[in-house]
Write the structure tokens for this entry.
Amino acid sequence: MMAHIDIVLNDARSFLSEQPEKLQERVNEIHEMIHNKTGLGNDFLGWLDLPSNYDKDEFKRVLLSADKIKNDSDVLVVIGIGGSYLGAKAGLEFLKVPFKDKQLEIVFAGHQMSGSYLNHLVTYLKEKRFSINVISKSGTTTEPAIAFRVLKSLLEEQVGVLEAKSRIYATTDKQKGALYSLSKSNGYEMFVIPDDIGGRFSVLTPVGLLPLAADGLDVKKMLEGAKDAQIRFSNPDLSKNEAYLYAATRYLLYKQGYKIEMLVGYEPNLLYLNEWWKQLYGESEGKDHKGLFVASAGFSTDLHSLGQYIQEGERHLFETVIQVENIDVDTVIPETKDDLDELNYLAGKTLSYVNKQALKGTMMAHNDGLVPNMLLNIPSFDSYTFGYLVYFFEKACAMSAYLIEVNPFNQPGVEAYKKNMFALLGKKGYEDILK
Ligand code: PA5
């Protein structure tokens, strides 16, 4: 199967003073730079070939661990933040069947610093059989490190040190960092985040794959989707490479003064894809005082909150709208005799049909309100499409960041708050910062 992301630029094109095809030469140069690994941050391009050359033995261990977790746990606690959390969360939500009882519940911790959240989680886990997947590339990030310390103690109290060891899975660097040393000395099952893959590009490594497989999702299909995307987007031709066409269009809009991009979906399954996407683009492009500000919305919900601003507020934003072609389970609107709610004109229609008209109507209105729109059509909510979409956005992100001439793969700004926080907390080595 070869999925396809269809990208429709019609509306956006009319706003552009220069068409993306004009950038073909520059796109070719950047494409060479990405594939020959000669650009800024070139030691972080491991995600590029990952779908075809991932570690197959480690992948088998991921599947075995996922089976073990399903068999011996009621809850899997995934501990991580940023790129060590958002990819798995996005995938779980993208493929989620709402209101369905699950054999294994997956919860997150260490993705913020809330004492109340952690306290309630500890109480919740007291009566449960649980496992932990702690994820941190650096192995030193404060939020997950604190959560792990607390939850590891709880697990050890609950089942004893020996059994706890067999229920803790660590995903981290292959040889350095506090989490690496701690896990090695405790003998935990360990998975590697490759040196050349940064956090926000790591969803298709064990970072995302273990939680997703533990949820029973078809991670093989995910990698197949990503592999087909890898093949499709290895051609720089803008008429054949939707990822580059998306990158080139958003770049041109940015240059014309549209400084904000909103990623918009009409299904709740897309809400965390938005969050993952915001990190991917925000951290990759927002540097040297450049880059689009990335925002998101879930429609039609947010049409009742942000809708007014989008329609008539300051004209500095454009929208990228994700449309899902096939919704597998739908609701048909019933007919009533009295029609007191005046909805009989919709009787027999599905909600997906109504949702699609909402999308069309909104795009027309926003277009009239001078908000450029791009449409990304994806086939359905399935594992293959998730893998394909992840790779689509990653490849587009590298192209986008290089178009504005920043290093896509570092995040120097993320350190700024940490230094101040460490100084305020009295961590050794940070004493001078507050002077
Ligand atoms: O993309 C990134 O590199 C970051 O967002 C990291 O994923 C995040 O800061 C967490 O870092 P770590 O995995 O080292 O705990």
